[in-house]
Structures are given as structure tokens and as C-alpha cells.
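Hi again,

Forgot to attach this to my earlier email, sorry! This is the prediction with pyridoxal-5'-phosphate bound. I've pasted everything inline since the attachment limit keeps bouncing my files.
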Amino acid sequence: MDTSTRKGWVDIAFAGTDTTLNALRQGKETLWLNPSRRPFDEIKQELALGFDDIEEAAARLQRFAPYFVAAFPETATLEGILESPLIRADSAARRVAQWLDTAPPEHLLIKCDSHLPISGSIKARGGIYEVLLHAEKLAVTHGLLTPGDDYTCFASEAFRTLFSQHSIVVGSTGNLGLSIGIISARLGFNVTVHMSADARTWKKALLREKGVQVVEHQSDYSVAVAQGREEALRTPRCHFVDDEDSTSLFLGYAVAALRLKKQLHSQSIRVDNEHPLIVHLPCGVGGGPGGIAFGLKHVFGDSVHCLFAEPTHSPCMLLGMHTQLHNAISVQDIGLDNLTCADGLAVGRASAFVGKVMEPLLDGIYTVSDEHLYALVALIKESEGLDLEPSAVAGLPGFARLSHASTQERASLGLKEVLSNATHLVWATGGAMVPDEEHAAYYRQGKALL
Ligand SMILES: *Cc1c(COP(=O)(O)O)cnc(C)c1O
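C-alpha cells for the complex follow:
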């Protein structure tokens, strides 16, 4: 890491010449528009990963579908494909619009990753995918699997015996640990999850119940990941799921775009230049929202606009992209504490590669205060009956942010003429696994703020 440039930025931040950095430092809600966004056709060839890679990941998940039906019977309704509902949210559109003093968008959709099977969060996409990829490689290497085999064999004793000689390690704020822990333990791996201090107690308890080793840290996410990485390096036959730097996680998330295209089509939602799709994605380290945005750009090109949402206390991606220092700067470097009720987004330093990949693709990033996150949890519960965790509602105020943006800002996104035709899609990233009493506490806190 080049600390001299990093120090330079911090000095600038404190000198107060940069309005974006100033707003971040002061914990103010901010909308940052990406000045480096370019037409997708122009940059497609430059990307290190392409559409073929996304299709390969989708095909791998399809091969594992019979395994899921066998090992997780709750996945049988979708024939072993882990996918979430896409719902219209007219009532939420009205409530949120009224609360934020704007007009409701004509189309507001919610992608309910909160209700993904197995682990109830967006992490059921990338996290589970990476473990399957690793398991498949091991099975081939050890001569247990040949092309064309029925993948229900992954539930057999021979496979479990093989995986019991291998281990998987991950560092997490909670939800990635749940996804990796549950699938790894079921396949028969030894699995250890390093949890940051923000990880909820019930997430740790649930994992221990499933036979996962949980190591608790008093520090934040970056330290939990670093400790996990170190343990993995010391351990033979061990795979470390590196949430800060993993292309397989990223591709697992990207598959969502292929599935979403079908869902939009079956609900007769048009997506073209006149009818843009604006997708609001809560962002922690960046892999989840980055992978999905990457997939969406491949599917919809410039008709899709992706915006990330971060807590005001943990805007690591905004900070990294704006300064172009990416993972060489942390929110602590500008005086923020990285403490937020959005435990899934409590990340102080962005992924090592996602910000760079997003540079020409992303429309922008906005920040949301903890008070607003709590209030939005209550609003979505009252309007749509959805139980979401605070991280999962970060994208809900996004349509209002755009409608409050200046004409010039909208024009810079190519949305000046067509914003009123847009479909806003809020990616609701987690919630179904949260215990009822925790939901009730979130709701009470939010209700008091409405
Ligand atoms: C992890 C997580 C995110 C963000 O994903 P990243 O890959 O960390 O950016 C969003 N919402 C929830 C609920 C999460 O658990």
C-alpha cells in the first residue's frame, strides 16, 4: 500500500477542499455520481471477466440443482435453483415517497434476496457458489466425479469422507459466514468462520448448531478476514473464501442477472433505453452488489443503471472509488468509526478489485444514515409486510435521491428525459433468518423515528 498518497488524501480531506469527502467525514447523507462511467459497448472488451464466465457459473449451479433437492428439501419447489421472488411494491413506493417528500415512481420492484433459501441473504449466491466450485474441483481431482454424473452423489458418504479431510475458512460480518458455514458443513467439510465484533449473537449460535467452528473477534470485519486468511495459510488442505478478493464469489453473484432477466420478462417489465432499469444495491465490501451490477451490465447494457447504497458510518466503496485509492484507504482514515446497525454493510475497507471493475460501469453511490435505515425497516414492514434487516433496506430511498438530484446530475446519468419511465428495483439483501424478537426490536426502533 502506498501510504504517502493515502496520507495526501487524508490531508486534503481535512483541509476541506473536497465536498464529497467533507460530507463523508461529517456523516452526512451524500449522493456521489461516478465521473468515470462509460458506454458499456466501449469497455466490454477490456473487462477481465466476460459473459462466458457468468454462463459457466450458471451452468455449474444448474449441475448442482439435483444435489440441493436431495440435501435441502426446501429447494425442491424451484427444482434446486436458489432464487428469490421479484415483487411489485406499490404500497412501499407510496409510503417511502411520502416520507421522503417526493412522487412515487411508477414501477418499484423489490428483489427479495432476504428470502433466498438456505441462508436468507444475498450471500446465498456468491458464498454458496464458491464452496460448490471448490467441492467440484476436489471431487474431480480425487476421481469421484466425471462429466455427466448426477450431482446427488455430492450427498453420498464417499464425498463426505473426502470433504471431511479438507477445511474451509472465511471471515465475515455474519451473513457470508452463515452461507459458507451451512453449505460447507452439509457437504462434510471442516469449516471455521471468523466473525467480526458486529456479527449478531444469533448468527454465531445458529452456526455452532450446524457444526461450524466460530471464532469471535473484538475487532471489525477487515481484521476478522485477515485472521481467517492467516489461519488458512497455516492449514494444509484448506480453502480460504476471500471476501475481499474473490472472482468466484463475484461470478456467483453475477448469475443473478440472467435469472432477473427472465423474471422481468415473465412480469412484462420492459427494459430498454426509453424504459431504463435502475437497480439499487446495498454495498459492504462490494462483491455482492459488484457481481450483480457486472452481470446486469452484460445482460442489459446501458439500459440498466446501477447505484450502490452504503451506511454513512461505513462508506468504504464510495471513499475508495472517489479517491481512486480503492482498498488503500479505509473509512477510519477519514475519521469514521465503521459502526452501523447495518451489520452486513459494516465494512471499513473495500474489496481489492471490485471498485476498479466498477469504475466504468457504476452510475453512483449514495449513503444512508442509521436512523433512516431503522425507519425504512419499519416502513417496509408496514407497507409490504416484509421483514428485512437494516442492511437490506439501504436501496429503498434511492428513487427519492434521484428525483431530488439536479437536472444536470440526472443528465450526466442519461436519465434526464426518461427518469419518469424508469423501473426502480431495490435489492433487498437479507432478513428471513433474523429471529422474530430481533425483527420486533428493529421495527420498534424504526417506528419511533417515523
Ligand atoms: C453482505 C451483505 C451485503 C453486501 O454485500 P458485499 O459483498 O459485502 O458488498 C448487503 N446486504 C446484506 C444483508 C449482506 O449480508
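Residues 1-5 have pLDDT under 50 and may be disordered. Residues 122-247 form a domain with the Rossmann fold fold (CATH 3.40.50.1100).

That should be everything now.

G.
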